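ARCHIVE CARD
Drawer: 12
Card no.: 0347
Subject: one protein chain, sequence and derived structure
Cross-reference: see card 0346
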Amino acid sequence: MNEWQTMMIRTSLVTFHLGMLMTLNTLTFRPVQPADQERIIAFTFNTWGDNEDDYIKDVFDDWLVDPRGEFTAAVIDDRVVGIAKLTDMGDDEW
């Protein structure tokens, strides 16, 4: 990410989360930690609009220890607000 992109994220990112509109000053990224599980399961519930759990609860532990990828948390004010999973699928594939 270049300096301009970082500045734009820090100064103008706006998100709608849990019914609350927030202007974000700092978005950071770090590896997901076991202690994040309850929070992640909570905000991924009903992802598909069917009032059911998302599959994340079923893969969380495997993703934490996956040696072929990274499980990343987007964090604002020490609170996980998003996740991403990147997995090495083989030569030149992610």
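Annotation on reverse: The first helix runs from residue 3 to 12. The beta strands are 14-17, 20-23, 28-31, 69-76, 79-87.
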